[in-house]
Design goal:
CATH class of the largest domain: Alpha Beta
Number of domains: 3
Helix content: 40-55%
CATH architecture of the largest domain: 2-Layer Sandwich
Number of strands: 5
Order of helices and strands: HHHHHHHHHEEEHEHHEHHH
């Protein structure tokens, strides 16, 4: 038998109108049930329109018919059953979780089962405790089981001083119209594939070729990244990185900078042995003397702190290049590898430049003195 709402009084109608204009979704739906039923809608149709169960619709109509607005007014819910454990138990759980377990546990960190036993042993009224109860108690204190993140630190005792010097030279290069900074680094590449993950079917498992030769299949890439326009100056080493290869790369880089009309560049690199060797440092001093006489681009060297790869923007570019280009591919020759690496490297640098240009806030440049006397001060230092 179909059920319909009874006649709605004026006072009840005003209350239902307020419910429909309010923010309480329960009151809104119950008011709509009564209004639709008032216009001869059947319960199944009302339930479909309001996304309610048909029995819920029937209950609202029946309750209103028998008890009026008061019968369908939502009542505040109780807080549920009282908590099973007191604040004292939660405090003990938190304290234990923040400490290392005792030696007899034989573990470096607590397990939930171990915490449950340790907490139960502290209280006479707790015979047993489930690991889920421990998890909920710790969750209330915002404590969870996290994987520790590795935090890189530099052992360089002069880290802050070297970093401040790098920042000063970067600011000078970025503010000067005829100067710029270059980030220089090297990385090894092999034509043999790396172990990696990729999409594959169950019938075609991923396999990589096993490496069977070494030196003839690897090559080293020298890269200098322009801090201003993000262009990369690349050169493949004929052997492994050493002082002679570094000097040859610097010669080519400085010719490139002189041809582009730069008065000076700040070269930022790490403390690799071929960067700090007598051969390399001697060439830099000789070049700066010659550059002063022949009006070539001056070279200011800035060494990064020891073991601080996060200060070198080329590090993630090298990593992504190896991940994307090498992956599971086996290059037949080193020459093919070099072509693929250069192509992707330039694409990656172009994308980084685009993101940097979008994110950079156009700031008014701060005047920085870049007279010849200032350049001489920096070029005379090899730190």
């Amino acid at each position: 038998m179909a059920i319909r709402v009874r006649s709605i009084t004026g006072e009840e109608s005003e209350i239902l109108e307020r419910w429909q204009r309010g923010d309480d979704i329960i009151r809104y739906r119950r008011a709509r049930v009564l209004r639709l039923s008032e216009t001869d809608w059947r319960c199944p149709a009302i339930a479909e329109v309001l996304a309610l169960h048909v029995e819920t619709v029937r209950w609202v109509i029946k309750a209103f018919n028998e008890g009026g607005i008061e019968a369908i007014t939502p009542q505040p819910r109780s807080g549920g059953r009282p908590p099973g454990y007191t604040r004292e138990v939660a405090d003990v759980a938190e304290d234990l979780a923040r400490q290392e377990p005792p030696d007899e546990e034989g573990r470096a960190t607590w397990t939930l089962h171990g915490l449950a036993k340790a907490i139960a042993a502290r209280f006479e009224h707790i015979a047993t405790m489930s690991h889920e109860a421990v998890r909920r108690l710790l969750k209330l204190r915002d404590i969870a089981y996290y994987r520790a993140k590795q935090w890189l630190t530099s052992p360089d005792p002069h880290y802050e001083r070297r970093k401040r010097r790098r920042d000063r030279l970067l600011a000078m290069a970025r503010a000067a119209p005829d100067g710029t900074a270059f980030w220089l680094d090297q990385s090894w590449f092999s034509r043999w594939p790396y172990r990696f993950r990729a999409w594959a079917g169950k019938d075609t498992p991923l396999r990589v070729a096993q490496r069977w030769s070494e030196k003839v299949d690897t090559t080293a890439l020298y890269a200098a990244l322009n801090d201003e326009n993000q262009e990369a100056f690349l050169r493949w080493a004929t052997g492994q990185p050493d002082s002679e290869e570094t000097v040859q790369f610097l010669e080519a880089l400085m010719i490139h900078c002189t041809q582009n009309g730069l008065r000076f560049i700040v070269l930022i690199w790490d403390k690799a042995s071929w960067h700090t060797s007598k051969r390399t440092q001697g060439w830099i001093r000789a070049y700066n003397r010659r550059a002063k006489e022949e009006a070539h681009t001056r070279l200011i060297v800035c060494q990064l702190p020891t073991r601080s790869p996060w200060l070198m923007p080329l590090e993630p570019i090298f990593g992504w290049t190896k991940h994307q280009v090498l992956g599971g591919r086996l290059f037949q020759t080193v020459a093919q590898l070099q072509v693929a690496v250069e192509r992707y490297f330039h694409q990656r640098v172009a994308q980084a430049k685009e993101r940097r240009d979008r994110a950079r806030v156009k700031a008014k440049p701060v005047p920085v003195q870049t007279s010849v006397s200032v350049l001489c001060k920096y070029t005379s230092s090899s730190v």
